C-alpha cells in the first residue's frame, strides 16, 4: 500500500511540529506536505493531490473556510480536518455543514489520531461503495448488451429474409441490362428501380446497425412519436413474416421525454418482440385478431406530467403464476433457442433508471398490455 500524502496548512512551525509529533506517536506513516499561505496551498492540492488535508482555522491573509471551499472545488473527495486553537461551537457547526470531515482543538491533540482513523475508515467505505457501484453498472451494461444481441438475432433473421427480395430484383435487373437488348429509356427506368431497391436495403441495414451500436448515450429530450416510429420500422420485417398488423394511436400533442433514446428504444423493441411471440403462439397462421396496438398519451399524476406508452397484443396472455416472475433475471417460458430471460428484467432496470415505471395486465388467451410510464419534459 502506498504511503498517504498529508497536506498541512499551518503558519506556525511550533504547532506543525506538535501535530506531526502526535501523528508519529499514533503510529501513522505519511508523506508530509506543507503550505503556509493561499498560493502554496492551491499549488499543493492541484499538483500533489494530497490524500488528507489538515488545516488551521485562522491564518494571516487566508482562512480555513476559504481553504475548505477550495478543497471542495479542486479535490472534493479528499478528507479535510481542521486543527485549530481558536474554534468555537458555532465555527465547528459551520465547518461541518460546509463539508469538513472533522475538527480537533490544538490543546486536545490526543483526539487527532482517532479523528484521522475515522476519516480513513469513511474514505475506505466510500471507495468500496464507489467500486461496487461501478461494478454493478458494468454488469448491467453487459446484461443490456447481451439482451440487445438476443433481440438482434430475431430482427436480423427477419431482415435477412426481407432483404433477399430486393437483392433478387437487383440481380434480375442487372441481367436484363447485360443482355444489351434494351433501349436507353428502359435502361433508365431499370436503373431507377435498382437505385430504389438499393436504398431500401441500405435503410434496413442502417436501422439494425443503429439499434446494435453499443453506446452509453446521454439524457436528452426525445419525441415519443419518433421512438414509436423507429420501433415500427425496425420490427416491420418480423411483423410481415408473422402476418401481424400493427396499429398506432399517438396523441400528436405529446410532450417529449428526457431519456437515453437507445435504451428506451431497446425497451420498446423488447415489448414488441414479446407481443409478436405471443401472437405467433396463439395464431400460427393469419388471423384478424393477430395484431399489436401501440398507443401513447399524456397523463398527470400528483401534479406532474407523464407520458404513458401502452403496447397491447391479443395473443396467448400471461398466466398469473408466470406473471409473478416475469421481471426476474433469466426467467423465461421460451425454449433455450428463443430467449435468455433477460428482456423484461433489463427493460425494468432501464425504466427505473429513467425514473419511470413498467407494468402490465393480462388475461389468459385474451390479451396482454404493457405500460411504460416516463416523466414528461
UniProtKB/TrEMBL annotation:
A Pfam match: Response_reg
PROSITE patterns: HIS_KIN (PS50109), RESPONSE_REGULATORY (PS50110)
NCBIfam families to which the protein is assigned, alphabetical: hybrid_RR_LvrB
Protein name as it appears in the record: histidine kinase
Protein source organism: Leptospira semungkisensis
Keywords: ATP-binding, Coiled coil, Kinase, Nucleotide-binding, Phosphoprotein, Transferase, Two-component regulatory system
Transmembrane region(s): none
EC numbers for this chain: 2.7.13.3
Coiled coil: 116-149
Broad enzyme group: transferase
InterPro entries in the record: CheY-like_superfamily (IPR011006), HATPase_C_sf (IPR036890), HATPase_dom (IPR003594), His_kinase_dom (IPR005467), HisK_dim/P_dom (IPR003661), HisK_dim/P_sf (IPR036097), Sig_transdc_His_kin-like_C (IPR004358), Sig_transdc_resp-reg_receiver (IPR001789)
CDD domains for this protein: HisKA, REC
PTM annotation (4-aspartylphosphate): residues: 56
Histidine kinase domain mapped to chain residues: 158-377
GO MF assignments: ATP binding; phosphorelay sensor kinase activity
Domain annotation Response regulatory: ranges: 5-121
Catalytic reaction equation(s): ATP + protein L-histidine = ADP + protein N-phospho-L-histidine
Signal peptide (residue range): none
Amino acid at each position: 500500500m502506498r504511503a498517504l500524502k498529508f497536506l498541512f496548512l499551518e503558519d506556525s512551525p511550533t504547532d506543525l511540529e506538535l501535530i506531526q509529533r502526535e501523528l508519529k506517536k499514533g503510529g501513522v506513516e505519511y508523506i508530509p506536505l506543507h503550505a503556509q499561505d493561499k498560493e502554496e496551498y492551491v499549488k499543493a492540492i492541484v499538483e500533489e493531490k494530497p490524500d488528507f488535508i489538515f488545516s488551521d482555522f485562522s491564518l494571516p491573509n487566508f482562512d480555513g473556510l476559504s481553504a475548505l471551499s477550495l478543497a471542495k472545488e479542486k479535490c472534493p473527495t479528499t478528507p479535510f480536518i481542521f486543527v485549530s486553537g481558536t474554534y468555537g461551537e458555532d465555527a465547528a457547526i459551520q465547518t461541518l455543514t460546509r463539508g469538513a470531515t472533522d475538527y480537533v482543538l490544538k490543546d486536545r491533540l490526543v483526539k487527532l489520531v482517532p479523528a484521522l482513523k475515522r476519516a480513513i475508515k469513511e474514505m475506505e467505505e466510500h471507495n468500496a461503495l464507489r467500486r461496487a457501484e461501478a461494478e454493478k453498472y458494468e454488469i448491467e451494461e453487459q446484461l443490456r448488451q447481451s439482451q440487445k444481441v438476443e433481440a438482434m438475432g430475431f430482427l436480423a433473421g427477419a431482415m435477412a429474409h426481407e432483404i433477399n427480395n430486393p437483392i433478387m430484383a437487383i440481380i434480375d435487373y442487372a441481367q436484363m441490362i447485360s443482355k444489351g437488348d434494351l433501349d436507353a429509356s428502359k435502361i433508365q427506368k431499370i436503373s431507377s428501380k435498382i437505385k430504389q431497391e438499393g436504398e431500401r436495403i441500405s435503410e434496413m441495414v442502417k436501422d439494425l446497425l443503429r439499434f446494435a451500436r453499443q453506446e452509453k448515450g446521454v439524457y436528452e429530450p426525445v419525441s415519443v412519436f419518433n421512438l414509436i416510429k423507429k420501433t415500427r420500422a425496425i420490427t416491420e420485417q418480423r411483423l410481415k413474416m408473422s402476418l401481424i398488423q400493427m396499429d398506432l394511436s399517438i396523441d400528436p400533442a405529446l410532450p417529449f421525454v428526457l431519456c437515453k433514446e437507445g435504451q428506451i428504444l431497446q425497451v420498446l423493441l423488447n415489448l414488441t418482440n414479446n407481443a409478436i411471440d405471443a401472437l405467433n403462439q396463439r395464431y400460427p397462421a393469419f388471423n384478424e385478431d393477430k395484431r399489436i396496438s401501440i398507443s401513447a398519451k399524456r397523463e398527470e399524476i400528483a401534479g406532474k406530467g407523464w407520458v404513458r406508452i401502452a403496447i397491447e397484443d391479443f395473443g396467448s396472455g400471461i398466466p398469473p403464476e408466470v406473471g409473478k416472475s416475469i421481471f426476474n433475471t433469466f426467467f423465461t417460458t421460451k425454449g433455450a433457442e428463443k430467449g435468455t430471460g433477460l428482456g423484461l428484467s433489463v427493460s425494468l432496470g432501464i425504466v427505473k433508471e429513467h425514473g419511470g415505471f413498467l407494468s402490465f395486465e393480462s388475461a389468459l388467451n385474451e390479451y396482454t398490455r404493457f405500460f411504460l410510464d416516463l416523466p414528461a419534459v
